[in-house]
TrEMBL record:
InterPro entries: O-antigen_ligase-rel_domated, WaaL-like. Residues 388-410 are annotated as: Disordered. Pfam families: Wzy_C. Residues 198-325 form the O-antigen ligase-related domain. It is a multi-pass membrane protein. GO terms for cellular component: membrane. Keywords: Ligase, Membrane, Transmembrane, Transmembrane helix. It comes from Pengzhenrongella sicca. The keyword Membrane applies. It is found in: Membrane. PANTHER family: LIPOPOLYSACCHARIDE BIOSYNTHESIS PROTEIN PA4999-RELATED (PTHR37422:SF13), TEICHURONIC ACID BIOSYNTHESIS PROTEIN TUAE (PTHR37422). This is O-antigen ligase family protein. The chain crosses the membrane at residues 41-58, 65-85, 117-136, 156-178, 190-220, 226-247, 313-335, 347-365.
Amino acid sequence: MSAPIVVEPGLDAARERGVLRDWRAGALAVVAGYSTFDPGTALRFGAVICLGVLLSEAGRIRPRAADVLAVALTLWAAMSLTWAVNPSATALAVGNQVAVLAIFVATRTTIRTPTQLAIVAFGFVGGCVVALAKLVNQNQGASFNVELSVARYGIAGVNLNYTAYSLTTGLAIIVLLWQVRGPLHRARPLLLVLVPLFYFGLAQNGSRGAFLGAVLVLAWLVTWRLFPFVGVTVPVLLLCVGVFMTLTGWGDNTLRLLDAGSLRTTENLAGRLAVWPYARESISENPFVGIGAGGFSTINPFGIGAHNVPLEVAAGLGLIGLCLLAASAFSALLAETRTVEPLTRRLLVGTLIAASGPILLSGHWEVAPAGWFALALFSRIGVLPPPPPRRRRGLRRPGALGRARGRRPG
């Protein structure tokens, strides 16, 4: 008589919970994909999906420091309605901030395994593929080039720079996916094929900031490989220097010279060097609380945003809001990844900073769903198992040779 099959109590329930979490990851993957080529849909409907995911996990939510700081930032933005110079613009900005908060917290709450991390990350990369296909399909009469040119091509209804920023972020997420082992490991050849395609899309789009970020990703990969003594501190410090230079204006002359030598020179970095002084003036007049989230575009003569995340956030929410944003990002990307294997952490954290640095300093990324998805994904690299130990050539453990021959060592 065969032995009875013993079912461990709670095993089926645990398996069902795992499947449900993977379904949640699948839903987030769809929203992540849309965030790359249709940010409006991701902010409106995607945020509702993320809120539903959060409600389904209500009993299992364990807020971490980054989540609490992101909530504090959102509450501060909502409070700015009471002193906003343009309440309608601030109300719109607050709505977007609530949406990216739902995306950020839902993604971080759902991802508990490498598979779930890979599912959402593949969704993001898949969205980048859709964005690239749309770019090519909607510009069939264009003369496609393999390097930056004066002509720029994008997707109808989506900001030109946003498309490029998403592709650059997609390159960083490809590096993240390369570190995921398991059933999805076989997709590596596909990821290699996508890398040159994404660079081609960036060249066609013509965003200099996004292209610089993509180049810095390659530079960081080389640095990570050849110079193991260069830690995450280096890209963090370089980003801090860039933020300081743009906040103070000390780097404007250098940027003006660099712009003069580019193919699409405008002598003022496409209007950025013209609008930044107004942002600095607004910050000096309202240094701590700002003029209300999203209000800067309504008070400067150009009618545009600052195209610089530190300046935009500091002008709208003051230095308090900027500190809350920086603290949330620092906690998510640096503090919460301290337990990750050092080599992997240095590779991944450095990659995201390299990709995002030029974007943060030259564009609007403060309420971009793609940007918050990327931050959430990289903040969860702690679910990755440590890489297998590398065996050195010519070295054997004591007694290994003797055991292999079937006798005791010595």
